[in-house]
Amino acid sequence: MQQIQAPKGTKDVLPAESHKWHYIENTMREVCALYGAHELRTPIIEHTELFLRGVGDTTDIVQKEMYTFEDKGGRSITLKPEGTAGMVRAFLENRLFNEPMPQKLYYLNSPTFRYEKPQAGRLREHHQFGIETVGSYAPETDAEVILLALDLFRRLGVRDLVLHINSIGCPECRRDYNAALREYLSGYLGEMCETCRSRFEKNPMRIIDCKEQRCREIVKNAPRTVDYLCDDCRKHFEGVKACLDAAGAEYVLDPDIVRGLDYYTGTVFEVISNRIGAQGAVCAGGRYNGLIEELGGQRIPAVGFGMGMERLIAVMEANGVEFPKPGETTVYFAAFGDEPRRKAFALAQQMRREGISAEFDHMDRSFKAQFKYANKLGALYTVAIGDEELALGEVKVKCMADGTETAVAIDRLTEFFKE
Fold this sequence. Notes:
Blueprint: H1 15-34, E1 38-39, E2 45-47, H2 48-54, H3 60-65, E3 68-70, E4 76-79, H4 84-93, E5 103-113, E6 125-134, H5 139-155, E7 161-167, H6 171-185, H7 194-202, H8 213-218, H9 231-246, E8 252-253, E9 267-273, E10 281-287, H10 291-294, E11 302-308, H11 309-318, E12 331-335, H12 338-353, E13 358-360, H13 367-377, E14 381-385, H14 387-392, E15 394-399, E16 405-409, H15 413-418
Helix pairs in contact: 1-5, 5-9
């Protein structure tokens, strides 16, 4: 019978790797706590309409990448392709708008699904960390969200990152920009891919985000959003840059960033690494002042970002970051004989109840093999228990680092290891 394998574009996180995830997740929680952000968890599935209205029906995500199916009740359901739309739905459904603003919300290790060609740092199922700050129009809010991401990278030891920022304006100033963009692109319609031709009238800015090489060549000399900003959008963007300057954050003004989601307005940004090849963005986000209204709420501003956990681990490894080692076993009880094995089992349980990590033999190994196994576990101490030790009521505790042994009464072992 043929062995079943994981679906293409998915990856198992094995015990040898999971400690890396724990370290990153703990660091993320610590950084979010410093910024006053709180975790919000949303379902892995949502109604498809959420992404059609929120993400936009002309985006690559909706047109090409979503995992959508009909459930047994005839409802169209989609596996979550990104985190923001679900967070906004939860914000509205649970009436978090009645809480004091701004609301700083983050999601962690959130499974995200996109049907695309698997490649380095990009899987069909990946996991995202993101933060959404809801309720403030202030440019300081944009800058704070960006600085949170940069602080996280700094704490994780990631170097050689470049912050790229741009502003794509509000719906009002974008009308003038779209008109100028259509005028420029009209001479190239026959050369563009079919998807971009379909976007020409409805959403020409999406063409700038196209991954087809010919389309990328065409838009190199296209009009830029920053040249068409209204006074309010220009003032806001200048405020964001001033805040980043005040915090000492270096950045590059990048007019090519428009982001692949329709809900963005104003500030957009990406954090780029040059150590993981073409797929260099390790964090991306921006402001979305109209999304909450689009999904049935009031006009409430918001700004946020998302980053993929798998890509983050890849860039950390490329930076030579040394992850903390997984937790070691404190004590291993090696036993031989039925009665000593039962005592070893009871002592291991006693240690665990007291917060001391402990192990014993589950595989009926020889006495010698048990000590080899203790070495593989990285046990700090080993305790040998046989009939003689039970009769004496005393065991020898061996320190694995230097080989020294200490005689300890069996009924004092817990106190010994606590000390």
